[in-house]
Amino acid sequence: MHFTNVFVSIALVGTVLAVDHSVKVGGNNKELTFTPNNINATKGDTVTFHFWPSNHSVAQSTFAKPCEPMSGGFWSGYIASSSGGAMETFMYTVEDETKPVWFYCTQGQHCISGMAGAINAPATGNTVDKFISSAKAASSVVIPSSVAGTGGMLMNGTMTASSSASGSTASSTGAASTLELNKNVAFTGLLGMFAYLMM
Description:
- With 199 residues, this protein is α+β, with helices and mostly antiparallel strands.
- It has a single domain (2-197), classed as Sandwich (Immunoglobulin-like).
- The protein has three helices and twelve strands.
- It has helices spanning 2-17, 128-136, 175-197; strands at residues 20-25, 34-35, 38-39, 46-51, 54-56, 59-61, 79-81, 88-93, 101-104, 116-119, 153-164, 167-172.
- The strands form three sheets. A six-stranded mixed sheet has the order 2-1-4-8-11-12, covered by helices on one side. The chain has a four-stranded mixed sheet with strand order 3-10-9-6, with helices on one face.
- Strand 1 (20-25) and strand 2 (34-35) form a beta hairpin.
- The radius of gyration is 19 Å and the shape is globular.
- Residues 158-198 have low confidence and may be disordered.
């Protein structure tokens, strides 16, 4: 009985500790950047891309071909905003923290302008800076043939008026609310388990 409770508790702790990393795609001054352009995440974490003016996307690529879609990789599709953060976001779940995930914007010549980034890029060797330099040297930007939303989760939310230097504050509905609910339920279950074990 206690073993089952301990096992469930360990599973709940993993859920509680998962983190959502926010990435600003573009900016109010039409910057061609991902901020931050390298996210350090662990397995189970999510990375949510928030889209700013005017029309951007995020697609998974490879280090060798930074401005071309990776076969079977994720793609948000194009998400437009005329001012501030778009209501629609794209969420990707990290499956293996030991393998870097490379990405770029497929809009126009944005990738060639350096609009590229990574999740868990190494600090030496194939760094995010080398990846962006390779993107700037690419001869073309290839648009994925996959359907918008592939490999992640498109979400609609309501952007609040407040924003910070690194991005914006958003309260989302749908999938994001479910994610928060799951974290809250897991935390409540964890507290209940500790109370039970203390008896």
